[in-house]
Specification:
Distance between the termini: 11 Å
Strand content: 15-25%
Order of helices and strands: EHHHHE
Mean pLDDT: 88
Shape: globular
Number of domains: 1
Helix content: 55-70%
Largest sheet: 2 strands, antiparallel
Structural class: alpha+beta
Number of helices: 4
Low-confidence stretches: none
Strand order of the largest sheet: 1-2
Length: about 80
Amino acid sequence: MKTVNTCFTLSYTPEQYEHAKSYVDDMKRHPRRVYWQSNKGKSDEELILSHIAHRILSGYYNQYDPVTTRRHVISMNSAEMN
């Protein structure tokens, strides 16, 4: 199986940031959730930005909407990895 490294540049609104912050705050109240297996040790800011990126990109792939995409996905660079 081949692997590709992809880097997205995304924009987000203050509302998206606040929503992600609320999500992270809620997850802190549940330390035994699977969520923490891959996110242990990350700063709040890393968790918030990761959640924003996940929501933007999963929305893009699950419900393609060109208008929303143009607003949030600014650029994408990809390179095949060895």
